[in-house]
Design goal:
By secondary structure, the protein is mainly beta. The chain is built from one helix and 22 strands. The protein has a single domain, classed as UDP N-Acetylglucosamine Acyltransferase, domain 1 (3 Solenoid). A nine-stranded mixed β-sheet has the order 1-4-7-10-13-16-19-21-22, with no helix packed on it. Strand 21 and strand 22 form a beta hairpin. The structure holds coenzyme A.
Length: 173
């Protein structure tokens, strides 16, 4: 019911499964696919031609550009910024506070990841709080990224480090 109401508001912008949950104040562009069991929290803004695989969770106030694809079972943490043409493989996990409060009144600042234009992120990657993934960068599967990754560099490992450069033929300008 909720889904159908929202669907009529989006006037056909949304393609996807009926068993997903979209909170109020979520803005979707045209031709957005949302898979089975996805959750989109309030304040989220998504551009055109995007795709979110099943069981992906988008937390509050996330900003996503155009032609972005998140595969299945990704966790996009509150405040994340994702620019155009980004690809993220299954089981991505973003984090947004360095410390963990849980009743201690530490109030750690929210420092969400920023994934810049045309970056590619392999399966099962964890991004530490506040990390910036540069344009056209490539993160190998299973990596734990704790530092900013410059544009066009290939990083992998736990913790991830520079392992190479993306070749010219794979750059999206
Ligand atoms: C990072 C990646 C591009 C490297 O590929 P490559 O340049 O062909 O590297 P190689 O396979 O030649 O491996 C080179 C070395 O790095 C290691 N290695 C490769 N990828 C690794 C990774 N993700 N994490 C840790 N080590 C890795 C290899 O074991 C090898 O080690 P060795 O020299 O001790 O034998 C690739 O392994 C990768 O992770 N691709 C992403 C896969 C993915 O998630 N696809 C999503 C589809 S939905």
């Amino acid at each position: 019911m909720i889904f159908k109401t929202l669907l009529s508001l989006f006037r056909g912008a949304l393609k996807g499964h009926q068993l997903c949950f979209i909170e109020r104040n979520v803005k979707l562009g045209r031709n957005v696919f949302i898979g089975f069991g996805c959750v989109l929290r309030t304040g989220t803004l998504i551009g055109d031609d995007c795709s979110f695989g099943h069981l992906t969770v988008i937390e509050r106030d996330v900003k996503i550009g155009n032609r972005v694809s998140f595969h299945a079972q990704c966790h996009i943490t509150q405040g994340t910024i994702v620019e155009d043409d980004v690809f993220v493989a299954p089981f991505y996990l973003g984090t947004n506070t360095k410390n963990i409060d849980h009743g201690r009144n530490l109030n750690p600042p929210i420092e969400a990841p920023i994934i810049k234009r045309a970056a590619r992120i392999g399966a099962g990657v964890i991004i530490a709080p506040g990390v910036i993934i540069g344009e056209n960068a490539f993160i190998g599967a299973g990596s734990l990224v704790t530092k900013n990754v410059p544009a066009r560099e290939i990083w992998f490992g736990r913790p991830a480090s520079k392992r190479g450069e993306v070749c010219d033929g794979e750059i999206l300008w």
